[in-house]
Amino acid sequence: MNFRYLGNSGLKISEITYGNWLTHGSQVENDVAAQCVQAALDAGISTFDTADVYANTKAETVLGDALKGERRESLEIFTKVYWPTGPGGKNDTGLSRKHIMESINGSLQRLQTDYVDLYQAHRYDTETPLEETMQAFADVVRQGKALYIGVSEWSADQIREGVKLSKELGFQLISSQPQYSMLWRVIEGEVVPTCEELGVSQIVWSPIAQGVLTGKYRPGQKPPEGSRAADEKGGADMIKRFMNDDVLTRVQNLKPIADEAGLTMAQLAVAWVLQNPNVAAALVGASRPEQVAENVKAAGVTLEPELLAKIDDVLGDIVERDPAKTKETSPQQRVA
Predict the structure, then answer these.
(1) How many secondary structure helices (H) and strands (E) does the chain include?
(2) What CATH architecture is 3-328?
(3) Residues paired with 204 in a beta bridge
(4) Catalytic, out of 54, 82, 124, 180
(5) What is the mean pLDDT of residues 118-129?
(6) CA atoms in the 13 A half-sphere facing the CB of 5
(7) What is the CA radius of gyration of the chain?
(8) Is residue 208 within 8 Å of 251, Cβ to Cβ?
């Protein structure tokens, strides 16, 4: 496993980070989830990412149980706050001081730890003054409940303002967690240049485009049984933007490039995002322990410029690059 600094900080994280978004507490049984976490640890992954909203808090509980007994100082545990949790009442969502302070306490209890290494704003809250949000994060850091602060799916302007306030309040905002893959490159135009300037790293989710870049979805064919595209609990909705024959045909044409690199298509996809120097880690999930072992082989891989150019030629104009998509895919008002 390789390790990279997170933003302009002294914190090192594993460049393959284990995330339990659509699996723990919902898609897979707890014992299988524990096996996946153990497989991650065995592969050298030390960084684990979750959120209070995943499976409505159950994912945090599963991760806390799976990591129980591990040396806490050897781990980097990340979680997030914003989306509705619990019964979803009027104050059970957003980035108000009330919700942040209550949410961090709940997350720590479920994760069975005194602190998280990184606490992330899971989206931008248009209904709470940013000053209130950042003051609450500053207090969470001063109380020792989080060491660093990050954001997820914030625009370049929102990140710039957040970093400015964090410096004024005396804490470090060091990370951004956006969607990023060969097919979804919306951060490259504005978010990445801004973050490079400000000393903020990307921890990218969905580097395999919810499984599309594995090549398992074929044009003109129904999604395989048990796959994310066949999952009506949420997976199918997330993946539908890529489920058209043009995208799926071009993805199939990546197979010879993966073969040339000596990688599976999934490994190629993960290695591709790690070529971006502003990316500190690629988030990978798993529903089976073997998937973890396979994805980890993307760590430390260097893709030559000629190979990267071939990928661009194959994918062509199906790649989404519009920076406005970051704001478009974030809620314009709180979801209650």
Answers:
(1) 13, 10
(2) Alpha-Beta Barrel (3.20)
(3) 282
(4) 54
(5) 96
(6) 7
(7) 19
(8) no
For residue 54, indicate whether it is catalytic.
yes
DSSP of 276-319, one letter per residue? STTEEEEEE--SSHHHHHHHGGGTT----HHHHHHHHHHHGGGS
Note the pLDDT tens digit of each residue in 194-251: 999 999 999 999 999 988 999 888 877 676 665 555 456 555 566 778 888 889 999 9
Q: What are phi and psi of 294, to 5 degrees?
A: -70, -45
Cα gap 202→279, rounded to integer Å: 5
pLDDT 10s digits, 1-21: 999 999 999 999 999 999 987
CA–CA separation, 228 and 235 (whole Å): 5
Q: Select from 20, 49, 93, 317 the least CA-distant residue to 202.
A: 49
**How far apart (Å, rounded) are the C-alpha atoms in residues 292 and 285?**
7
CA angle 19, 3, 136 (to 5 degrees): 60
* Domain ranges across the chain: 3-328
Residue 271 — φ and ψ, nearest 5°? -60, -35
Q: Report the candidate in 300, 251, 299, 9 with the shortest Cα–Cα distance to residue 147.
A: 9
